[in-house]
Amino acid sequence: MRVNMTHIVVAHLMAFASLGGVALAQAHSRVVLFDFEAGSEGWWGNPYGGGKCGTEVSDDAPLGSKSLRGWYQDVAKGANVVGPFLPEDAAWRKGEWDRVSFWFKGDGSASDVRFSVDAGQESGGSFSVHVPLDSTEWRRFTFLATRFWNREGRKLALRNAKRVLFGGGGTKSFLVDQISFESPRRDVPLDGPAAQSFSLSLGEKATGDYILRLDPAIPLRQKTMAALSVGLVSPSGERTSARRDITFGKGQPDEIEIPLRAAMRREGEARLSVALADKDTGASLGSGEYGFRVFLPVTRTRQPLTLCPQPKEMTLGRGEFKLDATTKLLTVGTETAEMDWCSDMLRDRLAQWHGLKLKAERWQGVAAPTDGIVLALGGQTALLTGDLEKRLSSLGSEGYVLEATPSRILLKSRGLRGLYNGCHTLLQVVRECTDWPGEPKTKAMAVVDWPSLPVRAATLGVPTNRWGHPNNAPLDPAFFNEFLFNCVARLKLNTIVLVISGGIESKKRPELAGPAAWTHEQVRQVLDFAKRNFIEVIPCVNSLGHANWLVLYHKDLQEDGDHQTLCTGNPKSRQILEEVYDELVDLFGCKTFHIGMDEVRWQTHVTPEEKRCKLCAGRDKAEVFAEQVQWLHGHMKKRGVRTMMWGDQLLYAHNGGPPYATRRAIDRIPRDVIIANWSVAVDGDSSRYFRSKGFSEVIQSNSMGVTREQARHVMGNMAGLWTKTPWLAEHYDHAAVGHSYLTLVQNAEYSWNLCDDVQYAFPRLSPALLEERAGSVLRQMAEQPEPNAGRSQKPVDLRPACNRSTTAWFGLTADDALRHLPKGDVRVAGVRFTLPGSEGDAGRNCIVAGFPEPTAAATIPFSGRAASLCFLHTAHIEPSQRQGFNKRYEPKSANIGVRIGAYEMVYDDGTTATLPIVYPWNVRSWRADRFPYAYASPGLLRFATENGLKRDPAARDVALYVAQWVNPAPTKSITAVRFRSDGTEAVPVLFALTAKEPRE
Q1: Cβ pair 517, 505 in contact under 8 A
Q2: Number of DSSP helices (H) and strands (E) in the chain, helices first
């Protein structure tokens, strides 16, 4: 039970306490900073660079009797309507606030103003959002603090607000009222045919309480005593009701907030009814019936094994199944190529990792196989034990049941994709349960698993496209395929949208391809690989905005001189698009084509009339947008291909507002278009809106997960990796983690299973989720197969080669140095390392490459054979040199990172083998951020500096990384390891080295 009450408490919140000039609601759900009832003291206009700007009190108000009018006149550069400084000792600063709201009325112009919160330089300076002026009706705007833009990329903490401002230019004006901060809540969507007839909203606080908010001005313009009746039916059928007399209508000094408390014993659909009646006459003033979804907190028990995505049900049994050369791989079911794909993938990966060479056979017997690994499709003889066969019958085609006993592993599904998904679970389980490659095994268990969403996707750029760094870098399709296997297929994602952008040759339009573009044959390598791994590939070509791939080479097609936007009025545009699209449809053989259509940045409103496109002059942009979609949809339909598009231009709250209001095009968009909705962070209710407008297929996009609430409105979830190198968690902008492979881990988890946290519609990348999976999922991604490795691990004594001390760490103070570095034996990613202590020998306990001379190589004595070597190392980059280092990501050689050094293994015959040290591929800086992972590093050792511990006793602000080298010649003896730097700004540092000895 969420709240231990069996009735609703309805209270009309009218009493306010004055705190330093600020009215604070007693319920503490909102603090009203400015209501202007007592005037606008402290507000002023500040023009800079010409013109005038000012403020005055207006009698036009949505609540109470006064509002603030701000105006700009002939402002050439810019001006601010500035509010007074907020009291530093205000009581509301102790509260928790996550959004800003106010009532706003524009002047009807196709323009906007910039609302800013000044948080002071120490807290990030100015944070801003844009507010449209296109409506002359009062509207209530609410902006989450996470939506505010900041030059430094900082997060806005509203408790630090110093003052608020409205910035603008030219000649325009606005009215504003009830500027407020609000406490965190979940905005609860209200469903029902009457939802538009009554102006109210519902929010849920983290405590489980609900807040019902009514706008007292819109339904009734005259102030009236009214009887408010509220009824609630919980998902379990309990009915509660209440009645209160309230003052309602124009002149009401504030919105009406009503806290609702009810017993919510289970999840499901609840019903809310609200009715207003004139207290004297009983005449109805308005009513509404609404449905909403109740969610209860979820307590997840920790699974016995950490996989990704985590199976919905996993139960361990007794014993274990051991795989060896005698293990049979049997398939039961109709012989198909797809069935072979599943068995081939499983067999090949077991051979790669464990040296097993299993022979796949068709089971010809009548009775069920009693031993070996069995892959079976549903519809065959009952093979599973207990009620597992019945459980399987209730699963969809992508679900599966995995039953492992000491004598047999049985994997069964009703569909081939489900069988493939189960194979990946089995491979992850074997990796988790196996101690060393020579004895692969799995614990006895039963797994029943199925996806919550049918579409689990990622948007990826063709890595050879022309835009972004590294410049025009070629990439072997085999490398990309392995990335797809590692980060898409094995995580049970089933769709990729591949953004072309000149990354693929065009035989019809060769001028549009970049110098590193894949040939058709190379593309077929990727498509064939994806097909064998049950991944649907959807090509994406931008068809209006982001059209630089086309208009840079056909400048006559630039709309109003903008190199990003295509002129749709020129017949040549359609001719080229048809040629390019038809060629791609033929090449991909796709069922769906993504036409883009996001972020259309027309410049018409700032282009002098005489320079505007003559073909499109005077045309309504909403009409232009709709016609382009209709034409593209029609063309694709003739080819038997579905159309997918971004949805932001169809939403007022995102890119469909002023100056062109393309949201008006929504009624002209064919309803069988698949909407890729990447606007949930801006408009949490947008997916439900698209569904209400008749679009049956909506995919939440640029997303790291779908919550249980959002899942009602979407068919899938799609991550957005807007980088050419998604395998790198750092890049030239030092902020690549949100577009890296790490997002796919969370995206996979919260697509197969749904995100429990329904307080926010758009889950952010979670450090906790990744850390929980670092020792299993991320390790499995990074590790290379070493089938020749034996049980024995041999730490190498580095002390003879150590040349620096961590207590004098690159000139830093003792509190910033690595004084808390562990010493002695530590285990990282299953490898036993021995760290030298800092006692004696001048405290030298690490090897800095390129010391004392940049070209100097450290030589580490070694004697014997090794199946692999594991290095525990890190890199040091002076903060002042970070910008210079980031420029090294620009050349085409940096497509898997920047080489900063190397380990050179010297064999007894004089030959050598090299492991490049590549940043951030297998090493990163010792200064650990919130996501301190490297794609090719199987694990990391984390600890804290003294200053880190002072800031947070649980801090771990230092990271050392494991780099793995698999010996291509394990029968040869190694005599030494040379460690050298390449002389970049990133200095490699080695702390420990361990050899894994070959199998006997």
Answers
A1: yes
A2: 14, 49
CB 200 within 8 A of CB 214: yes
Give the CA angle between residues 366, 372, 375 to the nearest 5°. Answer: 70
pLDDT below 70 — which residues of the chain? 1-28, 192-198, 215-223, 248-255, 379-381, 733-735, 838-842
Helix, coil or strand: residue 178: strand
Concatenated DSSP letters for 920-937?
Answer: TTT--BSB--SS---TT-
Please state, in angstroms and as integers, the Cα–Cα distance from residue 575 to each residue in 303, 492, 555, following that order. Answer: 56, 39, 15
The predicted structure's pLDDT at residue 735 = 64
Predicted structure pTM score: 0.89
State residue 62's pLDDT score: 86
The DSSP code for 38 is T
- The pLDDT of residue 249 is 56
User: Do 565 and 544 meet the contact criterion of CB atoms below 8 Å apart?
Assistant: yes
Chain Cα centroid distance, residue 534: 23
The DSSP symbol for 428 reads H
The answer to whether the CB of 717 falls within 8 A of the CB of 700 is yes
Q: Are the C-beta atoms of 977 and 862 separated by less than 8 Å?
A: yes
Round to whole Å and give the CA distance between 448 and 456.
19
The 10s digit of each residue's pLDDT in 628-649 is 999 999 999 999 999 999 999 9
C-alpha 28/C-alpha 93 separation (Å) is 12
pLDDT at 185: 86
Residue 631 corresponds to which tokens in the numbers above?
């034409």
- Give every CB contact of residue 907 below 8 A, 6+ residues apart in sequence: 913, 969, 972, 973, 974, 975
CA 628, CA 616: separation in Å to the nearest integer?
Answer: 13
515: which residues sit within 8 A by CB, 6+ positions away?
Answer: 472
**Comparing C-alpha atoms, which of 778, 809, 822 is closest to residue 944?**
822
SS3 for 725-775, per residue?
CCCCCCCCCCCCHHHCHHHHHHHHHHHHCCECCCCCCCCCCCHHHHHHHHH
- Cα separation of 640 and 637, whole Å? 5
Q: Which of 181, 179, 217 is nearest to 68 (CA)?
A: 179
Handedness of CA 154, 158, 161, 163 (dihedral sign): positive
Given the DSSP bridges, would you call strands 408-413 and 372-377 parallel, antiparallel or unpaired? parallel
Per-residue pLDDT, 629? 98
| Termini Cα distance of the chain | 60
What domains can be seen in the chain, in order of their start residue? 30-182 (2.60.120.430), 186-294 (2.60.40.2550), 313-449 (3.30.379.10), 455-782 (3.20.20.80), 789-998 (2.60.120)
| CA dist list (Å): 64 to 20, 177, 217, 252, 615 | 20, 9, 9, 5, 50
Q: Specify the pLDDT at position 284.
A: 85
Dihedrals φ, ψ of 126, to 5°?
-95, 140
Q: Per the omega criterion (within 30 degrees of 0), is the bond before 189 cis?
A: no
Q: Output the pLDDT for position 245.
A: 82
Produce one character per residue of 699-735: b if its CB has 16 or more CB atoms within 10 Å, e if not. bbbbbbbbbbbbbebbbbbbbbbebbbbbbbbbbeee
Q: Tell me how far apart the alpha carbons of residues 253 and 27 are, in angstroms, rounded to a whole number.
A: 16
Q: How far, in Å, are 456, 548, 715, 723 from residue 720 at the CA level? A: 12, 20, 17, 9
Report how far residue 647's alpha carbon sits from residue 790's, in angstroms, rounded to the nearest whole number. 54
Cα 356 to the center of its chain, rounded Å? 37
Pair 543, 633: CB distance under 8 Å: no
Long-range contacts of 940-943 (CB under 8 A, 24+ apart): 940/774, 940/828, 941/822, 941/826, 941/828, 941/833, 941/872, 943/818, 943/820, 943/821, 943/822
Q: How far is CA 420 from CA 323, 340, 733, in A?
A: 19, 10, 38
